[in-house]
Amino acid sequence: MKTKVGVLSAGGDCPGINSTIHWLVYSALDKDLAGGRGMMFDITGILDGWKGLAEMKPDKKESVRRWTMPLDSQVVRTWDRYGGTRLGTSRINPFDPKKDQSETIIENYKKLGLDALVVIGGPNNLGVAYNLSRKGMKIVGIPKTIDRDLSGTDYTLGFDSAVNIITEDIDRLRITAGSHSRVFVVECMGRKAGWLALEAGEAAGVAIILIPEHDFVLERVIDLLKMRWKSGKRYSIVLISEGAKPRGMEEIRERRGQDGFGHYYLGGVGGFLAEQIQKESKLEVRYVALRHLQRGGSPTAYDRRMGRKFGIAAIDMIVNEDFGRMVSFRQGEITSVPLKMALDRLKLVDVEKFYNTKNYKSLEQIL
Ligand code: F6P
User: Quick one: which of 265, 294, 310, 264 has its CA closest to 121?
Assistant: First the structure.
C-alpha cells in the first residue's frame, strides 16, 4: 500500500513554491530511498489551495479531475525553475465564520483517501493548517511568503526572489532618476512587516527606507531629501513599505477591502508620500508601486535551493510521522516547529536592532 499524500499551496503565490513541489515529488518517488523508509508514496496536487479541497466532490470523477493533479517526476520535472504555483492558489479562509468550510475539507480529505497533506502557506494558511490538524488531519506545513513575517522560521520561500526584484528595479529607476535629477518614491509589499523594504533598501543603497514598524515624520523625510540635494546629490530613492505610515495617521488601505482572513489590502502610501514631498519642496518627484511585479518571475538560486530543502524535509517528516508541524530554517539548518507557531505574533523588524530612526535607514552598526 502506498502512502497517499496531498499537496496544496494557499495564499499569495511566490517564487520557490514550484521548486518545493518538484523536490517533494522527487524525494517521495525516489526508489533508492523507498527501501530504507519502508514506504512508497503517491502524490496528488490539490488545485487552487483550500478552495480545491472545499469545492471538490470526491465521489464524482470529473470533479476530482477538475480539482486534483496526479504528480510524478515527469509532471514536475521542470517546475523547479518556475515562479508562481503550478497548482494554483486562493485566499479563502476555511474557518470564515460567514462560510465555514472546514468540515467539508476534512470530509473530502478522508474521501480522497489521503494519509497526509502538505500545506505550503504563510501565517494565515499555516494557521488554518494548525486548526485542521487539531481536528485530526495529518498535516505538514511549509513556510512561504515574500513578507518573511512568519514566526518559528528564519526563512520563508519567496523572500529572496522579491528582494532581488526590488533591488534590480531600483537599479533601473536610479538611472532615470539621475538623468532627471528627481526623487523617486518606490513602494514595496510586506503588509505589517518591513523586511522587504529594509533588506532590498540595503541592497539597492537607497537614500531613505520607511517601514511599518516605525511611524515616520513627514517633515523629517522632506528635510532629509533637501539636505541630500544641498550636499550635491542630484537624485534620491525613497523605498517605502506598503504598511508604513506617517506619525498620527492610519495605514493607507486599498479600495478593494479585506481578504478572507479579514486583513485589509494595503497600498498607496507611496503615492501619498510623493504628493506631500512635491507639495512641500521644490524637488521633482515620481512614484512607482512595484506591486505584484515583486512576486513574479522565476525563483532566485536561493529560493530554488530552499524549496529543495523544504520539499525534501516535508517528506522526511511524513516518514517520521511528524505531523502538526512546519518545516523551519533556523540558524542555517533545516528543522521543524509546531504549526501552532504560525499563530504566534508576526515576526516584525526589531527597530532597535536594525533601524536608524533618525535618518530612516538601516542601522550602520551590527548589534
Ligand atoms: O502576503 C503576501 C503579499 O504579497 C503581501 O505583501 C501583499 O500585501 C499581499 O500579499 C497582496 O495580496 P494579493 O496578491 O491578494 O493582492
Answer: 310
CA distances 318 to 28, 123, 196, 234, 328, Å, are 10, 21, 32, 57, 15
pLDDT in tens, the chain (367 residues): 999 999 999 999 999 999 999 999 999 999 999 999 999 999 999 999 999 999 999 999 999 999 999 999 999 999 999 999 999 999 999 999 999 999 999 999 999 999 999 999 999 999 999 999 999 999 999 999 999 999 999 999 999 999 999 999 999 999 999 999 999 999 999 999 999 999 999 999 999 999 999 999 999 999 999 999 999 999 999 999 999 999 999 999 998 889 999 999 999 999 999 999 999 999 999 999 999 999 999 999 999 999 999 999 999 999 999 999 999 999 999 999 999 998 889 999 999 999 999 999 999 999 8
266 lines ligand 1 (CB under 6 A): yes
- Separation in Å, CA 278 to CA 154, 226, 228, 275, 366: 39, 12, 15, 5, 35
> Using CA atoms, how far apart are residues 52 and 190, in angstroms rounded to an integer?
27
Which residue is closest in CA terms to ligand 1's atom 10? 12
Which position has the grid cell 504598511?
243
Q: Report which protein residue has its CA nearest ligand 1's atom 13.
A: 12
Distance between CA atoms of residues 67 and 76, nearest Å:
17
Asked about 147 being catalytic, the answer comes back as: yes
Predicted model pTM? 0.98
Atom 12 of ligand 1, residue of closest alpha carbon: 12
Atom of ligand 1 nearest to the CA of 190: 6
Q: Is 241 in the pocket of ligand 1 (CB under 6 A)?
A: no
